[in-house]
Amino acid sequence: MLDTIAKTTFALAQIPAEVTFEKAPNYPLRNKIEDTKQEAKSAVAYLQELQVVYSEYESLQQKANVALYRFLEGVFKVMVRMQHWKDADKKEAKRMRETFEVIMDERREQGLVAFTAATSLETKILRFVCGKISTAREKAWVRVLKVALNNKDIQNGDISFSAWLASEGGVYEVAHTNGKGNKPSEEVKEQIEEAQKLIAEWHGSEVLEEVNDKVLRSLKNDDKRFENFTVTLNCYDGNNAKQVIELRDVVSIQRILQLMGKQISEPVRTRQDVQAERDEALEQFIEVGGTLEQPRV
């Protein structure tokens, strides 16, 4: 199904290659738009086909990145043609987009998909195709689409949307890239390196104790299941002297308990049960062998 949808293009995409104004196969606008009304209708029809792609993505037990990238690329292609048609004059471009939004509004599932005057085009398209999705997912996908719209390599057709998204580390990395252009994974790496420098430089001093206090205050352990647990980071210097940083972090605690649980192959027995078995075995031994002789000194 994904291959079939991936090959689907707008009705006007069948224009011979010699009349296109860009030859790059990944260029979203390489096929000219001659009939704005037909283009708008084709765009909405294409989005309806993308609903199948999204359903397939949703039905996967493990959310396949390939399916998600294909889906978002389809949405992106529609957005580019509706927002960045450079051959059209402003009036024609506005007319096409308005026609597209009216048709999309007519065909959306009334009562299930909400549009307002303030809803962005990216959000409207996602809601039209996906229906109701979580706010976090919607924001992340909208963010990815907006970043892609400003990417010159994608706009020029030097790389496909899917290839770009995969090369950037996926939806989460792109959606959570900060204003300086740093991805979450890059920030984590930098933070770890800075902490290692601090520990190496100030091991055994009050500086690390102050950091430890700040860490403890910043972490919350509201889960009553783990109120009796903490984890420690043991820091050693060149002389093998240890300084301890204590953490009360639910994620770390859960991870360590999970690793311990994997090593347990049988149900955990109580101390009382084990002691009872030992007492029973001892009694049987005495019955068979008589009394226990005291060891000779």
Query: Can you tell me the number of structural domains?
Result: 2
Q: Strand arrangement, largest sheet?
A: 1-2
Quick one: overall form? Answer: elongated
Structural class: mainly alpha
Number of helices: 13
Walk me through this protein's architecture:
The protein has 297 residues and is mainly α. The protein has two domains: 2-175, no CATH class; 186-264, no CATH class. It is 58% helix and 4% strand. It has 13 helices and two strands. It has helices at 2-7, 36-59, 65-83, 90-107, 121-130, 135-149, 152-155, 161-167, 171-175, 184-202, 206-218, 250-262, 271-289, and strands at residues 231-236, 242-247. Strands 1-2 form a two-stranded antiparallel sheet. β1 and β2 (242-247) form a beta hairpin. α2 runs antiparallel to α3. The longest helix is centred in the N-terminal third of the chain and has 24 residues, at 36-59. The chain is elongated, with a radius of gyration of 31 Å. The chain starts with a helix and ends in an 8-residue tail after the last helix. The model is unreliable at 1-22 (pLDDT under 50).
